[in-house]
Amino acid sequence: MGKRDNRVAYMNPIAMARWRGPTQSVGPTIQDYLNRPRPTWEEVKKQLENKKRGSKALAEFEEKMNENWKKELEKSRQKLLSGNESSSKKKERKRKKKKKSCRSSSPSSSSDSSSSSSDSEDEEKKQGKKRKKKKNRSYKSSQSSAYESESESKESIKKKKKSKDETAKEKDVRSLSKKRKKSYPDDDVSSESLSESDYEEDVQAKKKRRCEEREQAKEKVKKKKKKQHKKHSKKKKKKSGPSHKSR
């Protein structure tokens, strides 16, 4: 089975348009649009004047609407004013009633009311003082508990440090006792017989030895540097010598 031949012949569009001939125009052309009837300058002026004047019907409609809106606004204003007046009158009546009731009440009742009000104020003050005392106590107790916890933590840290120092001392004493036993097998030296003074003397001797070793190492380094410097200077002299002779 061979492949299908899907090729299409090329058609020149310009040649095809010439072959078809002139196309029939549908609708107005550009020339028709340019040659349309146009109004004169005087007619244009009249149209503009009419637009500025506006239509009478629209003006009448706007006037009627404005009148209606004005009437509605007046009604709403009257309602609001009447409501405010009625509320003010009611408040005045209530005030007058309260004044009459206060005047009609006897002086005994006024004294009782004043005493009751003073008692209530005293009770409120007492309750406020009690609340403040409770708050202060709770704050102090919280502070004391925090301080105690801090002190306990510090004491525990100190105890741990002391125990570590004691264990280190015991280890040093045991090591010294073992060394002495090895050096002096005939003498029975026990760890208990070693005193603190011996321990301190041993520590100081160790420190002195370390200082002496450091000083010796420093002196060795200085001597090496001097030797290297001398060798370098000799090499320079040897190099500079033959150059002068050649000149």
From TrEMBL:
N-terminal signal peptide: none
Biased composition annotated in UniProt, kind: Basic residues: 90-102, 127-138, 220-247
Compositional bias per record (Acidic residues), positions renumbered to this chain: 186-202
Superkingdom, taxonomy of origin: Eukaryota
Bias (Basic and acidic residues): 68-77, 163-175, 210-219
InterPro entries per the UniProt record, alphabetical: Fam133
Stretches with biased composition (Low complexity): 103-118, 139-148
Region (Disordered): 68-247
Family of the protein in this entry: Belongs to the FAM133 family.
Name of the protein: Protein FAM133A
Protein's organism: Saguinus oedipus (Cotton-top tamarin)
